[in-house]
Amino acid sequence: MMQKILQQLNQEVGVKGSMIVEQDGLPAVTELGKELDGEIVAAMASSTIRSTKRALQLLNQSKFDRIILMAAHGRMVFVDLDPAPAILLAVTDKNINIDLTILAIDGAAIRIKNLLMKK
């Protein structure tokens, strides 16, 4: 079911691929396009999550809700699936209306949270 949610998310304009990662950055469910290397995306996710959590602890902040990482050729959007111990990651094109895409990503995050909390 989570795979299907990721597949639906990937149909949104500008979304290249998506995955659910554990809190430590290890991939749990992936639905990445052919142009994305799963190992590289997972490594980037792990590094970003770890660094962000460390920085937030130093700033006495509890957690992040969303991270948007902008790069030369695209974006990575991380959404914490709290209280489930997982994070939704979506890789997007650079030149999209990020606000509309975030609505789709947030909708997928809510559906995934609901599934994870039923387990």
Structure report:
Residues 2-92 form the Roadblock/LAMTOR2 domain. It holds the Pfam family Robl_LC7. With 119 residues, this protein is an alpha+beta fold. It has one domain (2-118): Beta-Lactamase (2-Layer Sandwich), CATH 3.30.450. The chain has three helices and five strands; from the N terminus they run αββαβββα. The protein has a five-stranded antiparallel β-sheet, with helices on both faces. It is globular and about 35 Å long. The model has no long low-confidence stretch (mean pLDDT 91).
Sum up the structure in keywords.
globular, Beta-Lactamase, Roadblock/LAMTOR2 domain-containing protein, alpha+beta, 119 residues, Roadblock/LAMTOR2_dom, single chain
Short description:
By secondary structure, the chain is of the alpha+beta class.
Helices and strands in order:
Layout: H1 2-10, E1 15-22, E2 27-32, H2 38-58, E3 66-70, E4 74-80, E5 86-93, H3 98-118
Antiparallel strand pairs: 1-2, 1-5, 3-4, 4-5
Helix pairs in contact: 1-3
Q: What's the N-to-C terminus distance?
A: 12 Å
Low-confidence stretches: none
- Give the helices and strands as they follow along the chain: HEEHEEEH
Could you say what the CATH architecture is? 2-Layer Sandwich
Radius of gyration: 13 Å
Tell me roughly what share of residues is in helical segments. 40-55%
Number of domains as seen in the coordinates = 1
Q: What is the tally of beta strands? A: 5
Helix tally?
A: 3
Please, what is the CATH homologous superfamily? Dynein light chain 2a, cytoplasmic
As for the CATH topology, it is: Beta-Lactamase
Query: What percentage of the residues does DSSP assign to strands (E)?
Result: 25-35%
